Structure formats: structure tokens, C-alpha cells
Amino acid sequence: MKKSGILNRHLAGALAELGHGDTVLVCDAGMPIPAGPRVVDLAFRAGVPAFAEVLDGLLAELVVAGGTAALEAGEANPAVARLLAQRVPDLDLVAHEELKRRSADARLVVRTGEARPYANVLLRCGVFF
């Protein structure tokens, strides 16, 4: 049995399958989930688990080379915009519709219970060497 890190077996297994260049969409409860990517739905109730908590857990386990988020977050959800700017390297901002389009190519979607708008980021996996 694992004693630390991500304990959810579905999420831990999905993360272990990721490789260099794969993308992971970490999203709020309202983000449309594209058909195709593997989905690990962590949403329990509105706000649980929070986007920030899930993002921090993923960043602790993944090598992240960069990310993409919605430009609209800056005005509609400044707290999330600041969080992403502080935690995600090489953050690219695009229109929300473009983020949704790019999400269709994600290898994995991790849905949180976040109930604030634009709490979404498409993480791009790097390599540890």
C-alpha cells in the first residue's frame, strides 16, 4: 500500500502511463469533457476537491514543462490566474474556446469539484533528465 503521494489508484495509474509531451487537463466541474481522453473524475460535491489542491498534488508528482490556461481567467477568476502564474512554468494564455479545442488531444483529464469559473489548465509533461 502507498503511504504518500496520490493515493487514488485510478489517478496514480493514469499518471504512471504518461510520457514526455503528453498533456493533462486539470479542470473545474463545469468544463466540457472531450470524448477520447482517459478521465479520472475526482468531483465529490461543489468545491470538493478544490482545483488548487488537485493541481498541487499533480505538480508534486509530474514533470511539467509548461501549461495552457484561459485568458479569461485573469478577469473572471483572478485567484486562479495568480495560482497558475505562480505554479505552472511556461504558462501560455489562450481564449477559453481554444483551450477547449486543445483539450480534445489530452491524454488524461482530471476533473475536480471546483465551482469557480475558468479553473482549468492543460499541463504539458516534460522529462526528468
Structure characteristics:
alpha/beta; 5 helices; 22% strand
Beta-strand proportion: 15-25%
Secondary-structure element pattern, one letter each: HEEHEHHEHEE
Structural class: alpha/beta
Count of helices?
5
Mean pLDDT: 97
Strand order of the largest sheet: 2-5-1-6-3-4
For the sheet with most strands, the description reads:
6 strands, mixed
Distance between the termini: 28 Å
How would you briefly describe this protein structure?
With 129 residues, the chain is α/β, with parallel strands linked by helices.
Protein topology:
Layout: H1 9-16, E1 23-27, E2 38-41, H2 51-61, E3 64-70, H3 73-76, H4 78-87, E4 91-94, H5 96-103, E5 108-111, E6 121-125
Parallel strand pairs: 1-5, 2-5, 3-4
Antiparallel strand pairs: 1-6, 3-6
Walk me through what this model shows.
It is a single chain. The termini are far apart. 32% of the residues lie in helices and 22% in strands. It is built from 5 helices and 6 strands. With 129 residues, the chain is an alpha/beta fold. It is globular, with a radius of gyration of 13 Å.
